[in-house]
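Below is one such record:
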Amino acid sequence: MSRGGIVRARDFGSHSVPTPLGFGVLLATSRIVAYCAGAADSGKCCAKTAFPTPEGGLLRSEHLFLAVVLLVGCGPKSIDDDADGYSAAEDCDDGNAAVHPGVDEIAYDGLDNDCVFGDLLDVDGDGFDGGTAGPDCNDEDATVSPDAEDVPYDGIDNDCADGDLVDVDSDGFDGGPEGADCNDKNPAINPQASDVVGDDTDQNCDGADGTDIDLDGFASDASGGDDCDDNDPGVNPGEAEIWYDGIDENCDPMSDFDQDGDGQDSESYGGTDCDDTLANVYVGAAEVWYNGLDDDCAGDNDNDQDGDGYGAAMLGGLDCYDLSDLVFPGQSNYFAEQRGDGSFDYDCDGREDKALPAGSVLLAGTPDQCNVWLSGVPDCGQSAPANGVRCVVGPPLACFCRAGTSTQGCR
């Protein structure tokens, strides 16, 4: 025994300990073991704990060899059978190293991988389980679940009930951009419904208020529409007219051979209109001279208004006055009246030639004094005293002078 009544390890070299000191050592040792056993349960360490000896001295465990041997219970006991770094108290499956806190949860695999609330069955958190056994048809979208309202024609089965909603009115015909139902909110309107003509509603979805057999968007005239041929989609009021093909493409009341709509068919197709592209050219129209058109379809030269066979000089012709058919180049007659514009130039030679110059003889064998002006030569168209010639039919032919009044003719 050392000083101060402290028991040291070397004092226990033999199994025989003097009494009462030996009893004290055994008692102290038992106390150490009991204390350390409790410390192991509580997580405390007893390596340096001191206990009083029976004699009032201190017994220090680090000086006792036996105490060191008995301190096997110091510190907590940790069990980790699957060696995943988590004790059995923390690991919800200590026989599976893939299961422990902190690992990623795998949905629908039947395992609580992360030891939090069992297997993950509701990935999107909408309150409905997904996977093969759950009612949620898309467990990655919280807007899709059995409680959601289906949005028509969006290509998504929002309420997980028989696919996307494409027949809103349940009439058996899909609506939307790809459907045949032109009004998917009214079950009375679908491709098999009967159309009521004149109510401004297309009940049978053929594009018209009435019967539209050829589906050109126009109801037949028989059903109250304006399609004149409901068996031909190329015939309806919206088509461009193809003239002279014998078909009334645009269903207007005009003849297919009257392109200009002047009421007369083209002369090329048995009509009388000489120009079926102009509504102002037809038989009976007023002729507008010098416009390059045969407005009245009379076949006249548009530059020959008086019809004497000579075009107007102002348009490159030879007729110096195109308002009288008596005026033209080569006119040989004399006229006592001006041609219409004050001129007596009937032969378009630029001169006014008088008919009875003084002393002229018109008939062979008449006296020279015949056919003369007795008091001067009058102007064209003016009258004056003159000796004329009178001939009596014989036989023989007898001519003689006769005084009288004559009117000067010119050309």
Q: What stands out?
A: Residues 1-75, 361-367 have pLDDT under 50 and may be disordered. Helices lie at 21-42, 65-70. The radius of gyration is 67 Å. The longest helix spans residues 21-42.
